[in-house]
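User: Can you model how 1,3-dihydroxyacetonephosphate sits in this protein?
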Amino acid sequence: MKKLMAANWKMNKTLAEAGATATDLAARVEQRLAADREVLIIPPFTALAAVAKAVSGAAGFFVGAQDFYPKDKGAFTGEIAPAQILDCGAVYALTGHSERRHVLGETDAFVGQKTAYGLGSGLKVILCVGERIEERRAGKVEEVLTRQLLAGLADVPRDQDPENLVVAYEPVWAIGTGEVAGPAEIVEAHALVRSRLGRKFGANGGKIRILYGGSVKPENCAEIMSLDNVDGVLVGGASLSAESFSAIVTA
Ligand code: 13P
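Assistant: Here's the modeled complex, given as structure tokens:
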């Protein structure tokens, strides 16, 4: 199982900036990428094709989308279909990112619909889960993660290829705040996710990668990567510069 080092650029970068950062990143990392690591760049839709082209020759590099709509085409103004993402040269997509859940109001059920649809359409899907600070303070971490995982995976078949499904644990209170979750908090949450995956997918649950996201930086990445059941990272702010993200990828 290769570790996945993912850069979520969110709503940042022009076409020119995205292409330049991707090219710079590939040049910095390519010769130094560990054999057991993969790099994933998740730019805005507008830059998917440009970034895919920029890293097409770089071994171990992949491109993904931040979202998609669970239909193959039709009257869904403003939305993007999995086939259109694949057409751009991207192979991954996020579902259930906390900003989609909490800023755009996506429900657990809709996230589940998208996760199953994306996998069925040939995308590799990264299902994001994570509790808010008030939920953690109220002792509800297990309850929230369980609810999000049950709904998020409800329509995913039990014989799902574990290589195409990834789960990202991103505590909402650690996203963009500089406040990284502590090692014990990460280990506990990832163990919980792993156990849920085992219940649903049996032995294959152990082959599904679990990423940590939330204020990952070059300085804290190596420690986070060393923790049990951490199979990669999903990075926002510190992934926007090639210098900083290359340091994370090679940490
Ligand atoms: P930050 O790394 O900026 O905290 O963002 C994490 C995130 O939301 C990645 O998807």
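A couple of observations from the model: The mean pLDDT is 97. The beta strands are 3-8, 37-42, 61-65, 92-95, 124-129, 165-169, 209-213, 232-235.
User: Helpful, thanks.
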